[in-house]
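U., I forgot to send this yesterday:
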Amino acid sequence: MFSTSPSNAPDRHARPLHPRTLRRRPGAGKPAVTVTVALAAAAALASTIPTAQAAVAPHGDTSRCGGRGVDTTALIRYESDIVIKAPLSTVWKLQTDVARWPSWQPPVTTAERLDPGRLKRGSQFRWTTPTPATPTTPATTLTITSTVQELRRHNCILWSGPATGEGLRIDEGIHLWTFREAKDGVHVHTEETWTGTQVEADVPTATAALGAGLEAWLHDLKTTAEQQTGRGL
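Result:
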């Protein structure tokens, strides 16, 4: 997700992951357009991650859901963690009730399920989020069509899909979430990878934009879950 206003939320351990930042994906040709994504977000994100917490993870050092995870070959990767002082059931419901995302996540402008019933493996949903203008791309709204690849109730969820907008495309984003109960609250871990010629043209900036979006998402999830818990919802 893109965001232009990442938050300084506590209890967070952020790790930008780009183990092959200076290498292009095999078979990728020279891009026709260099895309600089969310410069403001990139600068803001850099100021919110303590130096001691930012690290490049070894290749393949990722979490899993049902034996599956993000794309370990992707050039654009980011992961982060947060502790939420709320019941696991509250956190899980917020995260998996996709149609209600816009009610607590300002960067998500619309969200709809494409099939009925409880979210499960194979479920699809479509959602939109605005992106700011850059020197080479206009301000646009990305439409993301996601398919749930794995889901373990109250434990983890993995989805993937393309994101398209006027002048901007991410060929595939793969997004993993895991949830673990502990004495101090629910430990939420998230990581995501992007692939595509456009975004790979400027890996550091795209990684920072991805990170800004994930940090904002974690902050909104934490804030909403803890507020609901305080109100006894």
